[in-house]
Design a protein that fits this description.
By secondary structure, this protein is mostly helical. Helices cover about 65% and strands about 5% of the residues. The protein has 13 helices and 5 strands. Keywords: Membrane, Transmembrane, Transmembrane helix.
């Protein structure tokens, strides 16, 4: 079992997942279908939140009780959360520039932006994975176990799985093909990347799920399952070729929600923890005495294998087609690609 979902609270936990999944799917539709929706979600809301975050830290530095006790200040202090929020939001804005052909979004060279921003987001997570692996190694030397306490007072269990998954993440960057194969949909509601087919999506989802399972353990049920499945679901059924846009939109929106309302995941009837915490919910003040990291290792290996297979397939296709897989599209024979191109304005 990946997560501890049982007992009287299981119904609430499953309801929470459904609400998050449905909310993300609907929020993505609002953001992608109109310019106004996109500007509200990735312009107005982030601007308001930025002022709010700055106010919290300035007031906390001056000893204001409301700021010192603010949930964002207490529970969301890691550099990773802010880096992810603003990197994802930057991606959303760039994708809007491409699909609406705003400013440099009209230029050919800017088509490489989706690759660059996705690669940056992956590398942010890879660094975090490696950090956890190092911290686990240091804890083993000092305490005889792999537990280390994050800046947000969450016990994490760092080990070889972090290194394996970090390598999978690096490989995943090279699994993105057809960097310049970026199109606007005929309805101008989507930025399309047709060569980013199911091959990459599966490899990415496995890697990213393991990342959250390793490093955002108390949030993984939502940001590692619901958040990953929402864009994949949309891409599968009605938005072919728009997966990366869906992913950026839902990621940015979720980061905004989680940054302001962290207790939804951390301390409510909707909270879910993975199998790792064999003692159940733990007090940050008490060092854990046991762990069940089996699934961390299993999923890390699966993620690495998936990315190796994906990259090997890309290399094979590139040789057969005598193409550079990054300058050219190589999955043109796949159904996903053809359905995406049918939507594209060319």
């Amino acid at each position: 079992m990946l997560f501890q979902i049982y007992g009287d609270g299981a119904g609430w936990q499953l309801l929470g997942w459904v609400l998050v999944f449905a909310g993300l799917v609907l929020a993505n539709e609002f953001a992608r279908r109109t310019k106004i929706g996109g500007l509200i979600c990735f312009g107005a809301i982030p601007a308001i939140l930025t002022v709010y975050f700055i106010a919290i830290y300035i007031c906390a530095a001056n000893g204001a009780e409301w700021a010192l006790n603010n949930d964002t200040y207490v529970h969301m202090t890691s550099w990773f959360h802010y880096a992810k929020l603003y990197a994802a939001t930057a991606g959303c804005i760039g994708f809007m520039m491409l699909k609406y052909k705003w400013g440099i979004g009209k230029t050919e060279w800017f088509k490489v932006f989706p690759f660059a921003i996705v690669a940056i987001n992956i590398l942010i997570a890879v660094v975090s994975d490696f950090e956890s692996g190092i911290r686990g190694f240091m804890a083993m030397k000092e305490f005889g176990d792999r537990w280390w306490l994050s800046s947000e007072n969450v016990w994490l269990y760092g080990g070889w799985w972090n290194w394996v998954n970090g390598i999978a993440g690096i490989l995943n960057i090279f699994c993105m093909t057809g960097w310049w194969g970026i199109y606007t949909s005929k309805k101008h509601d989507d930025m399309l990347w047709p060569d980013m087919t199911w091959c990459f999506i599966i490899a990415y989802d496995l890697w990213n799920f393991e990342y959250t399972y390793n490093n955002l353990t108390t949030h993984a049920f939502y940001c590692g399952v619901a958040l990953l499945l929402a864009p994949t679901f949309a891409n599968m059924f009605w938005n072919k070729g728009g997966w990366i846009q869906n992913r950026a939109n839902t990621l940015a929106l979720w980061c905004m929600f989680a940054q302001v309302f962290p207790l939804f995941q951390d301390a409510s009837r909707f909270s879910v923890i993975p199998a790792l915490y064999s003692d159940g919910f733990m007090d940050a003040a008490v060092r854990p005495t046991s762990a069940n990291p089996t699934m961390q290792g299993v999923i890390a290996v699966i993620a690495l294998v998936a990315n190796v297979i994906c990259l090997a397939a890309i290399i094979k296709r590139a040789k057969q087609q005598k193409k550079n897989p990054y300058k050219n599209e190589i999955f043109t024979d796949q159904k996903d690609y053809k359905e995406a191109m049918a939507r594209a304005e060319v």
